[in-house]
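Thread: zinc ion complex, take 2
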Amino acid sequence: MIYREISKSNFHIHSNFSDGKNSVMEIIRAALILRMDYIAITDHFSNSWKSNIIQTLNSKDSIIEYIDTLNLCQEYLTNLNSNLVLLKGIEVDLYSTDDFIEKNLSPENFDIVLFEYLESKEEITFLENIIDFWRNMEGLNQLPLLGIAHFDPSVFFKDDHDVLIEFLESYGLFYEFNESYSKFFSSKYDDFFEKIRNKRIPISIGCDSHDIRNLYSVEKVIDAIENYDLIKNYDKFLESVRSAFKS
Ligand SMILES: [Zn+2]
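Output below.
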């Protein structure tokens, strides 16, 4: 099994800035004990129905405090001379309004941005518009890593899978394998993952952890990556992570 050899990482973690149980510092300490390579804190950002149900980052002030904390934690790891790399991330609910996203999120503050609930072709257009808006921002050198979180292939007709993959390819987005949603990568979607492989769409791994007790629970994800022969796609993603952190 490749489980032991693969980069020990989780690119989808919630802290108590949204609905996670632990502080960012508690997550870092746990990741250091586990000798992990990369962790991304990706707390919820939303102004949809979701923001009435769970705690989310839904104001400029809360986002400033979040970013300040993540910056301090990155400094802490640098001073520690640790191999662990912390990515400053956020998980954007695509049912939020475009106005809310554009006003509150500055892409330069983040290393990685996940988009959840991509469930229709209309939402692809919505997301294209957001990314285009960011690309046209003055003074922005580089966009963060952008990707689709826990996508459910059954929400698209089979023929429309090509539309999605074309979008991921042309906008340079990655595709996330999420341990908490293993039904989304069951073997019935074999055709879809063959396209992901052939088009060399980068893939990330995560488990949507809300508690440090499952900070590195990605067994099913790693099995799926192996079964669908997607190791090169994961390598491609890691390559972009490494190059983002060189600068
Ligand atoms: Zn999540």
